[in-house]
C-alpha cells in the first residue's frame, strides 16, 4: 500500500547575515507565520540553543577566548554546535517539528573562516562533524549596507536608554563589516540550492512578505493558506 505523503515533513531553516540586519526580528515573524499555518516549530540561535552551548556563547562573546585566536574560536563554536545539533535540532526534526535558527554554520565560515583566516580544511572538518548530515533545507541570507544596520542598532540602543557597548564582534570597524557582508554573499553564491539572499533594506513587514514568498515557494506544503 502506498503511504500518504508526509505533508508535515520537518524543515530546518537558518538565518544568516551581518550584525543588526534584522535576523532576530524576521525569525520571530517567520515563526508566527508558520504557526498560522499549523506548523509546529521551535526557534533557536547560535551560538547557543542548549545550556552547554549558551555557556560557550557567554564565554566567547565576553571576549574570554579572543586571545586564543580564530582557529580555537572556530573549534569552540563547533563544540557549541555539536551539542545544539545533538540535543535540540536533530531530536526536533526527528519528531516532525520544524527548526528555525538565528545563525548556524555559515557564520563560522564567514567570521572565523573567510574573515578570521582559519583554514578551509578546519572549517570543513568542523562543519562535517558538528552537522552530522543536518544541513539546513533553506538558508535566508539577509543582506544590507552595514552602515544602515549600525544606525538601526544605535537607534534601538538609544530607545532602550542603554549605552552603545556591543559584544566583541559588533565592535569591529566598518571595513571589517563590509568584508563580512561580502563573505556571506560569497557563501550564498557557492550554495545556490540552499541559500537565498534577500535585501534587508526594506521595512519589517515588506521583508517578512519577501521571506514568506521564498519559504512558501520552497516548501509547497505551506501553499494552502493560513491554518490549511
Ligand atoms: N526591516 C527593518 N527596518 C528597520 N529597523 C529594523 C528592521 N528589522 C529590524 N529592525 C531593528 O533593527 C535592530 C536590529 O534588529 P535585529 O535585532 O532583528 O537584528 P539582528 O540581525 O538579529 O541583530 P544581531 O546581529 O545584533 O543579533 C532592532 O532595533 C530592530 O527593531
Ligand atoms: C554562530 C557564530 C556566531 N558568531 C558571532 C556573530 C555575532 O557577532 C555573535 C553572535 O551574536 P548575535 O547577536 O546572536 O548575532 O557571534 C561567530 O563569529 N561565529 C559563529 O559560528
TrEMBL record:
Alphabetized SUPFAM superfamilies for the sequence: P-loop containing nucleoside triphosphate hydrolases
Domain Thymidylate kinase-like, first and last residues per copy: 15-211
Gene Ontology biological-process entries: dTDP biosynthetic process; dTTP biosynthetic process; dUDP biosynthetic process
EC number: 2.7.4.9
Top-level taxonomic group: Bacteria
Keywords for the protein's UniProt record, in alphabetical order: ATP-binding, Kinase, Nucleotide biosynthesis, Nucleotide-binding, Transferase
Recorded GO MF terms: ATP binding; dTMP kinase activity
A cellular component annotation (GO) from this entry: cytosol
Catalytic activity: dTMP + ATP = dTDP + ADP
Gene3D superfamilies: P-loop containing nucleotide triphosphate hydrolases
Chain sites annotated for binding ATP: 17-24
Record Pfam families: Thymidylate_kin
Enzyme class: transferase
HAMAP family tied to this protein: Thymidylate_kinase (MF_00165)
UniProt similarity note: Belongs to the thymidylate kinase family.
Function field: Phosphorylation of dTMP to form dTDP in both de novo and salvage pathways of dTTP synthesis.
Name under which the protein is recorded: Thymidylate kinase
Species annotation: Devosia elaeis
